[in-house]
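@channel sequence for tomorrow's demo:
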Amino acid sequence: MGSTLLFLLFLISSSSLVRSEDPYWFHTWKVKYSTLSPLGVPQQVITINDQFPGPWINCTSNNNIVVNIFNELDEPLLFTWNGIQQRKNSWQEGLPGTNCPIQPGTNYTFKFQVKDQIGSFFYYPTTSVHRAAGGYGPLSVHSRDLIPVPFPWPQAEYNVMVGDWYTKGHASLKKQLDSGRSLGKPDGIIINGKHDSKEPMFTMEAGKTHRFRVCNVGVKNSINFRIQKHTMKLVEIEGSHTVQNVYDSLDLHLGQCYSVLVTADQTPKDYYFVASSRFTKKILSTTAVIRYNGSNIAPSPDLPLAPVGWAWSLNQFRSFRWNLTASAARPNPQGSYHYGKINITRTMKFVNTAGTVDGKLRYAINGVSHKDTETPLKLAEYFGLADKVFKYDIIPDEPSDDVSSKKITLAPNVKNAIFRNFVEIIFQNDEKSVQSWHLSGYSFFAVAIEPGRWSSDKRKNYNLVDAVSRHTIHVYPKGWAAVMTTLDNAGMWNLRSSMMERNYLGQQLYFSVLSPNKSLRDEYNILDTQLLCGIVEGLPRPKPYSGV
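structure tokens (generated this afternoon):
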């Protein structure tokens, strides 16, 4: 009897282990308009649970995140999780090309796993120009306990959401863009929703080291940030541990997130965290107060100056290196993946341009300005109705030399991509402003940024050893950037300008990456709760994927 009982207990225990899952974190968000004054002017701001920035999603690699969003706005709403790769799960990407929006007065629950990722990220609304009204917040993914981190655990860590801001409400900004006019220059910069806040925003303990996760959540400008009298040790860029160089200041382009360690090794008092715009004629700036515990001494009014020009910024980019010996989400070192030895199977070159369609401002990639469709692209494709919504490959991999002077075409922009191909993507910027690009669903190796025009002989300048694996890349005026990645994540994935105006007016496209096996090994099934709209609303669902 005793042995039988022990055997039964063993079976129950084994069953529990087999069925166990990674931890779940549940969030309920009430999204609404609140009247706030980020730059001293009362305006409508999108808040989440009455917070701006929104709640911190703080989790560990492989955790499952469940976010139930109640839309209390008067417009449809979606959120994306900038930098979270959504492995096999573009159903949860939260873009107009992948998801039907959450209608006013209703709710929808996003469910996703931060699979094999660590790092500093953020979320934001992707519908309309809601991003200019706030609604963003931090998302941090920590390493699992069994994975070593290449620096001691900090005394404390802080999220710093910094970006430019308009005093016009988002409805006015949308109306301006829809009429064919550019938004012009932002009115200021805010840090965690505040401008030149006098109250301490962060505290540090003398002699201790603190982590600051800094993200540029703005809509137009690159930012430089620095801390009065303190240096910063860069330890992470967008989910990758970096070689730990020390900087007085760092350029942070749109959509990018850096983690820095700051040691409180100065005279105990208050100090300024300073952020200012880069590459703008009129420099916008703001400060936040860092207080040493117990301090009652005001910060010095003498602020550290920002660097000047893009050459300094380019040299700083070249100093960023992947930490080859550090582990990331898995125990194997980052450098065990030798991307520089993989043969390129496809090269795609994307040229950003500005022009007009029917007299209205539009932005384009290789001559095509993307427009969203009533039926999300992913849903149309999944239901076998892609031909009724969009055409594949309307832009070439190699645009003509005169693409910048050609007429812009307005259409959904979808590129076919072969599953598991190793590709090279070139971003050519012939315009006079800095560009910033984000690729959803993947990280890529940022192997080069240079002035001038790209040609195949430029590959000799690539960093094929320790380029940082990340999900955004910036391109300086009249310059180019090159990235490499393996398209091993099946789904519909967005390549977009991180500049809100350009994104809204068409500077984006989608990659359709389909697995020929249609297997659960490669892509998850659509959820039963997935919202349907457009021409797929009310249709019976296709046969689900099977296999492992």
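heads up for whoever presents: The radius of gyration is 23 Å.
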